[in-house]
Every structure is written in structure tokens, then in C-alpha cells.
Amino acid sequence: MSKKLPLHKRISLSAGYALGSFGLLFLLYYPFIWFFLLRPKTYRSALVARTAFARMFLRFAGIRWTVEGAENIPANTKVILAANHDSYLDIPVLMMLSKEPVFFVAKAELLKIPLFGDFFRTVDVPVDRENAEDGRRAFKEAMEKMKEGYHLAIFPEGGVKKGKHVLSPLKSGVFRMAEATGATIVPVYIHGTADRIFDDGEKTFYRPGRVSIRVGKPLQADTIAGQKGEFKDRIFELAGVKKT
After folding, report:
1. Rounded distance, CA 52 to CA 49, Å?
2. Are 123 and 152 in contact (CB under 8 A)?
3. CB atoms near residue 158 (< 10 Å)
4. pLDDT digit string (tens) for 96-114?
5. Strands 79-83 and 102-107
6. Rounded to whole angstroms, how far apart are CA atoms 182 and 227?
7. What is the per-residue pLDDT for 204?
8. Whole-angstrom Cα distance, residue 204 to residue 151?
9. How far apart are CA 219 and CA 193, in angstroms?
10. Which pLDDT score is estimated for 166?
């Protein structure tokens, strides 16, 4: 097995353009985002600015998207947007889907990344997956944010999966959150992001193109087990794949 080359040696021209677009927009938006993150009273403005950043980045990077079923996201209630996770591009895609500002619950390692770390120290919720006590802390913190009117955006698979499959095994946290808060889980299927970024260890490619976002009907199951099964069914249905 060949040794994976450093990123700067394997990056393609198109991937360099995408990273350059991100860097330019980062410099333009970061001062505003940083200012809004200074006080809890302006956290909502920070999330609005982040959504604008996501939209601009996707457009600059050549991503065009279509949304089907946006009317399935209910208004004036607690909402959890739960999506499949094929690529890191799923994050800005899911971010801009809701009319309400969204926050994420994700791995604590993101605290070390510039800008991402700023958000996870303020409006997003980091969690150490290996620490049960930290998991309980993150659960309570996410519940409080939902009470403040923010929508939770989450990937029940727990991370970007290897290979272009419909779903990996699901974590139960999102379903326990819905049960504890009375939130509505809205299943979202994102298609096409896995084809936009490709890294074989020798070369990193980025391909501008189209992404489709399909929003399913909210889940109605009451039990965690029922929610898991219904979520899988909805994602398979949105993906147009027969469940075996």
C-alpha cells in the first residue's frame, strides 16, 4: 500500500480553486461572524451570517442545488433535520435548508479548526464520543438550544461514511433527543456531494456540479426503535432505493 501524500502535493487545480474560494469568503465573513459570536444576544445573527457564508461558498465553488419537499419542514415547532452523510459538503448544504438558524452536534475534534472551533465554543455543541459524561452534557446543552428556537441539524450515521452507500448504522442520540424534547425529526436525503470531492491518497479532486436535496415527511413513530426504522424507510424512499 502506497503512503498517502501530504495534501499540498496531491491537491488538484479544481480542488485548489474550491479551497481558495473558501479562504476568500472566510476572510470576508469572519470579522462579522466573530463580532456576532462575542455575545449570546447576537448568536442568532452569527448563525444567519454562517448560512449566508455557506450559500456563497457553494455558489463560488460551482455547486448548484435543487430542493424537493421543503414544505415538509414544519414551522413554529422544534425540528431536527436528520440527513445521510456522504461528504463534508453535506454540512453547508444542510445548513442552508431551514428558514430558521440551525446548530450542529458533532465531534469535539472540530474545536481545533479555525472558525468551526469558534462556533463549537458558542452556538454549536461539541461532544466527545468516547466520554459518556460529556455525551450527557452535550445532550442537555442541545436540548436548551432547541428550547431557544434553533433547529438541530445532525447526521445520525455519526460521521462521513466510506463508500457511496445509502446509510451506515445509525446512532441513537438523535432519536433520544426527539423523544426527550418532543421535536419533529425531518429526514433529509442529500445526493451528489460524494461525487464532488474525491481523494485516493495520491490526488484530491474537486468536481463542480449538481446536488439534489430531498426532504421527506416528518416521522410519526413514538419509540426510539420505531423512529430508527421509519427514518431508514424514509431515506431509502427518498433515495429511490428498494430496501432489502
Report:
1. 5
2. no
3. 17
4. 888 888 999 888 887 887 7
5. unpaired
6. 13
7. 64
8. 33
9. 25
10. 66
End-to-end CA distance of the chain: 34
Q: What is the pLDDT confidence band of residue 87, given thresholds at 50, 70 and 90? A: confident
Predicted pLDDT of residue 102: 92
Query: Over the range 17-35, which residues count as b (16 or more CB within 10 Å of their CB) and which as e?
Result: ebeebbeebeeebeeebee
Q: Are 196 and 177 in contact (CB under 8 A)?
A: no
The cell 440551525 sits on which residue? 102
CA distance 175 to 208: 34
Q: Which amino acid is at 56?
A: M
Cα angle 15-235-59, degrees, rounded to a multiple of 5: 30
Residue with cell 433535520: 81
Cell numbers linked to 172: 441513537
**More confident site: 48 or 228:** 48
Task: Give the global pTM.
Answer: 0.85
Residue range 7-239 forms a domain whose CATH class is: alpha beta
**Grid coordinates representing 244?**
432489502
Per-residue model confidence (pLDDT) at position 244: 52
Rounded mean pLDDT of 149-176? 81
DSSP string, 11-26: B-HHHHHHHHHHHHHH
Give the mean model confidence (pLDDT) for residues 81-87: 91
What gap in Å lies between CA 219 and CA 80, rounded to an integer?
A: 10
> Residue 197 is placed in which grid cell?
470531492
Residue ranges of domains in the chain: 7-239
> Which of 230, 212, 95 has the alpha carbon at shortest distance from 151?
95
**What pLDDT was estimated at residue 137?**
93
